[in-house]
Fold each of these.
Amino acid sequence: MIKDKLQNYSKVEWPEKVYIQTDKSHYATNDSIWFTAYLVNGITHLKSTKSAVLYAELINDQDSIVSKRKLYINDVSVQGDFKIGKDWKKGKYVIRAYTNYMRNADSDYFFEKVIDIWSQNTKETLDSIKIIEAFEASIILEKPDLNFYPEGGYLIENVTCKVAIKIKNESYSKIPLSGHITDNDGTIISEFSTLDYGLGVFNITPQPNKTYYANLDLNGSEYKYQLPEALAFGYGLNINNKDNHLLVEVKSTTEQGLAGSYLMLHQRGEILFDKLETETKTNYFLRLATDALQDGVAHLTLFNYEGKPVCERLVFIENPNNKATIKIEKDKNLLGAKEKISLKLTTEDAKGSNLPSYLSMSVRDINAIPHNNRSKNIKMWLLLNSDLRGDIGDPSYFFSVNADYKSRYLLDLVMMTNGWRRFTWQNLLYGKNDINTFPIEKGITISGTTKLLKPPNSATPAFTTLTFYGDQIVERPVKKSNAVGKFSFGPFVFYDSIQTIIQSRLTDITSEKAREVLIFLDEAAPSPKVARNNHINNENQNSDILKVSEYGSAINFQYNQSSQKLDEVLIIGNKKSERKAEMEDISKFDDPSYRLDIESDESLSKQTVISLLARLPGVSFMGGRPRRISIRGSGSNPLIFLDDVAVTLDYLAEINANQISFIDLYKGANAAIYSNSKDGVIVIYTRRGSSTSSRRAKRKPGVINYSAQGFYTAMEFYSPKYSSETNQNTKTDIRTTLHWEPKIRITRQNQTQEISFFTCDIKGDYIIEIEGISDSGIPLYQTSTFSVE
């Protein structure tokens, strides 16, 4: 059963992982945040075949969502951006990203990244940093939070066990501490000391009827901590991660020994090795090769004869055969201001062969945005942070090209002190197989309920159709809502917004007599509750923020000084021409036969919409029910559109004239251009901000029209192009993000991608930071530098 459950998890119920690269980590108000989001299978790190919809949110330090993007992702990555408002408060913001499917698990599995938004006012930033530093200085007086992690999970009497220790206080994690282990008689058993990140280890062989304590002497104060009590009988698991092998010792002091025990090694849910012990023995040894495994966290679990997990141990696999690199070839290492630089990018595996990949690249000023090793990159996140509970201090240290014995030793202590976050055996083996509350999204689904118009307004089946009005009118086939009135169309893929109309009838969809139906659209699910992880607040350093603020202020002062030297320019605006341009920007076509501007003449807004239509040349009305309209020289059945959505004349009776901005009339050839109509076209545009075209607009029985919100379309990063002739005539260029390339594709056919851009006027050093993932699921990260003089 254990094996079957885990295989179902890895093959069917596998999780998704999201990672986001941003162009930098520090921003100023009124800046733009450029990002690329990667979505992968959480087991294999290959392209996810589940979700095609990704949500990215920007959250302020009051845990309020200030901006949200809904993105369509049809391969492994998608680009996006956030615009920072001029009046936003400075502070630590969080970018959170997830799929709807990921919401079925804990929000701890969402991707989160801290960014700093700083004020242009250096004094304001400095004051806030001083407050933070004063608070941080005060917590050094707190008692160190010392925690103990026996290898395998438990101390057992008369069995030597390795115990990892970790100090969780951020302030103490950088200060080496030392102490000793004593028993309840005060006898010193062992000594210990902490290394980087507050990690340490000691060995102990617990004796029966003994209690053990860890003792720390710090600043003249003595702190005492009781170790976990030892079990009289139990199971032990000892791992030595050496070179390309795992040396494993399994032991038991129980009456039945290891008979019936089951040892399993898995990596992100993929089973790598398992062993069922049939003999009654007290211990055995294994030597497991790791040269065929993928990089990342591996998980050894020992189950007893009852199938209950009794020992666990994490190890980190780093296989040289999985090594992959991004090669950055620059045509120059030293450039002048506003000079062109060209890069050639290739990706290679351990054998030097081309490695098809998706990449994204940021080029930024190192002085303005210091390169912070504590910031996540895709390799750290996918292989380490995303699979472990708690904070991993400075994960870049463990992935350095200069990694040595000490870094590997500390990484093994990280494995002992951070549990695996993706599941617990209790939930996997005994949890209920409930249907996921949040379904997998492949696109935009438009759904709702049909109810009877007359009391008691109960839900009712009805024939329903949906029509999109864009460049082309697209009508979806008629569907019948179910017994409780539910209907659903989609999934669709469209961007920005599109005018949409939904119609329902009790019987025939074309019958006007069967419109006794009300249509209620389902509201989009609200964003998950914000539960900011406390550890992310320490991800960026205050010294970096201050440096960025001071540097930005100096550069802006320099720029403002040069700006004041510009000649005075007198700008004369023409209000009438501005209004004309505004209407032309809103209207679908620029040359109507006649245009009535209501917004510019407030007296018109006091009339009815019907009287406004009567003011159009050649328009007349005919009595009777339903009321009819005709256009002289065209026909008696003109098309009527409200914000480019087709409506009936009766529908307009419910619209207030003060909601109308202007009306366009198309006759003859002009009408044919608009909609291929011979009877003329009337297009009514509401004032911007009016709720007429929103979901909350008044609706006729059996019909609803609104602006359906599509996927967000990312802005294009502005990258100027200079020449020797134009350099002297352009204003000072002070970009801190020199270039942003959100999507770079390396394929078997196109093995090299060449990217070029221009430097700016700021002299100094620049960093090229490239992240991505190969088609085979290997995360990639590389940096390079160049200088501008």
Amino acid sequence: MRTLRIFFTALLLTVSVAAFAQAPDDDPGKQIGDLRGQLDQIEKGMKDDNITDSAIDDLRGQAADVATKSQKVSSALSPNRDAAKARLDQLGPAPAAGTKEAPELAATRKDAQKAFDAVDAQIKQADGITLEAQQTNSQLADLRRIRFQQFLSRRTASPLSRPFWSEPAKAFPRDSANLSDFAGGVKADLVKSWTDGNRVALILCSLFGVLLMTVVRFYLEQRARSLTANRMPPGRLRRSALILGITLTSALTTGLGTQLLYLGFNWEETFSDETDTMAKALVRIVFFGAFIAGLGRALISAKRPSWRLPALSDETALSLRRFPMLFSLAVVLFYFLKELNRTIGTSLAATVMTSSLQALVLTTLTAIGLVRLSRSHKIDEDGETPAPRPIWASLFIAAAWIAIVASWIGLLTGFVAFASFLAGQVVWTVIVLSTTYLAMRLVDDLFETLLSEKGPMSARAQAVFGTHPRLLDQAGVLLSGIVRLALFMFGLVAVISGFGAGASDILTLGTKLQTLKIYDFEFKPDQILTAIGLFFLGLLAVRVIKNWLSEQYLPRTNLDPGMRSSLTTLLGYVGVVIVVAIALLAMGLSVQNVAWVASALSVGIGFGLQAIVSNFISGLILLAERPVKVGDWVVLDDAEGDIRRINVRATEIQVADRSTIIVPNSSFITKPVRNMTMANPQGRVLIKLPMPLDTDPMEAREHMLEAMQAHKQVLETPGPSVTLDNIDRAAMTFAVTCYVGGPRDVGSVKSDLLFDIIARLRKSDIPLLRPQDLVLRGGGNMSDVVGPAAESAPKASTDDPSS
């Protein structure tokens, strides 16, 4: 008990000390004063004429942080103001003039009013800081966008003109002197690192850095291949894990090796500011270049086709095997030159020439890579036409070609900054897409291995979670889809971040068109472009979601194929409607305008599109009520076959000769339809078999039953039966009946049974009914047979007497 008392006392003292220590920081007045000072510093930095884009981004982040903190202060003070207001309401208003009041009550009311005014003033100050910070953030965004547009629209001399080459030649002596001074400073810093620094640290860091970039990297890659091949469960996860391992190994070993070299040379901090800045920039650039080379080499995997993750042929991989290293070297070289030009202060002409060379090299490499990719994609190794590319890949290739051509045009016309920017964006987008693709495949393979019903880890996961295998499989697909969506959003943000302030800056680049106004609606170019972009992106998203549902998620559910097709089709309709509505809203059309247009078109729809609307509504009814569904065997008028697809306007029925009949959806609503597989999918085989009257019916019946019981497709329940259907003067007729799994099997089973029954009857010498022959014989002394048309034939009562 004493121990517990001592413990709680110590705990109380600790909490009290912490509370007293944090009391000054929790003072709202001090917090508001600090936030005001931060906001003043941000506004002061915004007015700097030499502000950079990175500084603007930092100030925007600081302004957003100030707005968030001030909102928290205001929210924290709101309960205090509410309490003070409630206290004032409880005390009531001050009495009228000339009315006496107790001094204690007046003092209490005065103190309560003072407390309320103090808290209310602090809340107003915090709200004012929040509003001012938000406005400052908007001003910084506008400043960033304006600088971005000015940068892209800056025009210099064209490479086809003489000033483009003469100006760098004039500035060459000064640029050469600056470069020589910088090189001399770097050389002096390196010598100083050897003489005045720690030589042991320099040698050890250099040695370990070189070993890390060479021997250690090759060893780690071999170990990664061995571990993925021998230790990981079989499946696709091996490939994606190996590619991730090779990418990270290449980036980390090369980047950390370069960092060790930097630490060795600058162990005693002997580098000057310029040398240290360039050295740090070089470390970052080499790290990024190693990541590019490792990622491209691992994805292409030219020497190991079985471990290749993308769907590339061996010819394509071999033709592209050198491009990751070339892109990596180009990125490292040109970004190093960019940092060098900024550090030594080269002339504008030299900077323009460097940017032109960067745009030309990067776009040329990209164009050659796209040409080789398209050339090797036309015919595969077996001489057959390969499967078509995914739609996103085709769209990206088309956009890349547009950007390349635009970059070349900008370079030739003197917009070097614009050309260099497009070239860099193409390379950056390729890197982001490759990284996002690897991450998505890794996520898919990981969830498939851990949660898939057929995965190697399925039994262990079922034992851990205690769920049904199919539910576990569905959970894996859902989690994979959610993570893939998050990765896609991260990749999209990463691509857009390369455009400076955002993709909206690209839309407002160039000449601003005047607003077109029709009646009360204004058509703005940016809204129209945004609506078009949202429309196509929405259609692409709907298609991706439909494919994901139909190919991955719904097959893992207990729904039948018809229900899965109906759900996918309905989702497509709803998605298209939502996409169209979003595009119209983005264009500026309100719901009222959309309703007005719809009412104006209703007259035309009512007179000219009755059949289309009727079929469309009928299609929705078919998908909702599902009297027929995909896979049903139906009979409608002269059409009999399987329903293959229910579209917006018509339904496709595949008949026995493999042809397709297109039937309007309204026919399924207004006409009688025989659904052979709706309630009972069984098919009935009926054979009428006539036999002579002298046949033993019991023996014949036994042979028929044996033939039906021996057939594998004949169902036991309901059982087969043989009945004596009819007896006349010429024959007795047996009715042979049995049931099969579906109406589609009736024809083939009936043929098999007929072959078997005939063979059994002939083997038992049971004759089949044959048609009776009429034989007419004529002899030498016989007179001609009197026929109905002979002259001596008797006359009927209905014949003409005169004939």
